[in-house]
């Protein structure tokens, strides 16, 4: 475009920044930031928001803050968004000024950073502002698999006249699917007049993660036939479905399709699904070869999946090699030591198991306790409970 003498406008620049943000290509985005400044677009609010989003996703707080400070009339919502994208929830809480507009932004900050219990806590304190905040609240319920609270939010949404909103209804499909009510989620899905990619992904993922892999694959194929272009999340869902239903050949085909036809670069989650798929089929050598050639081969979590497959197949030779590699990649990750120690004990190599235990103590590596959520009456066990009755009454009263 520049070679033909066509000068970029604000829309063009913001579109390129969005691409940089999605790809997390910080060097290109930073270079473009310089071009934006020299061309006099730095004060454009749309471009500034795109820059904040790019720096935020890359966790470069100083870059995002610099862009915000250069805005002619900065507002609290932009500041909240900046801190949220950068993962600084503490600073976001500090600037939260307690009006309805910033309340909605604060909900987004909590959701973006996975603090779903804080989303519901904020709803307990403030109630529900408008129809547009329902999708964010439902995301919070989904993140906690809080079925009862989600139903109450659904009822409140209907009471307020909400209907045929693709964003909210997509969030409802996701909620019910994650809470195990797959048939109800599918009924909602089938009744929707409009579906976007998020809707399709939610339903495909719902089938995949509730043991209905063949239906997930069928729905993926239907989505493609209807002209919806799958994204990385779509392929995560369909690969997960193939993995948990023994569809090895189909899984391999989708993995190749993602790269070759759609140009999607596989990430850690895609490789995790593939290693799990091959491991369940006891194709350990092929799984290890796949990891060795992956761009993200230095991520220890991938090797942990392979290690799990090795132990299930009783391939202790490969398991020992993989466990040692995990310790090299992440010396402070407790699970690597625990699994390697278990391998030695399972084959009667007690002295080596003891040496691993000593190595953990020398390096100060401690086994971390797990944590789970249990829903009981009106409380979420595992974090401070709350009374959610202010959001809505029982399901039967609403519908």
Automatic annotation (TrEMBL):
Single Gene Ontology MF annotation: RNA binding
Gene Ontology terms: biological process: RNA modification
Listed InterPro entries: E_motif, PPR_At4g14850-like_plant, PPR_rpt, TPR-like_helical_dom_sf
Keyword Lipid metabolism among UniProt keywords: no
TM segment ranges: none
PPR repeats: 196-230
Protein keywords: Repeat
Protein name from the UniProt record: Pentatricopeptide repeat-containing protein At1g03540 family
The organism's taxonomic lineage, starting at the top: Eukaryota, Viridiplantae, Streptophyta, Embryophyta, Tracheophyta
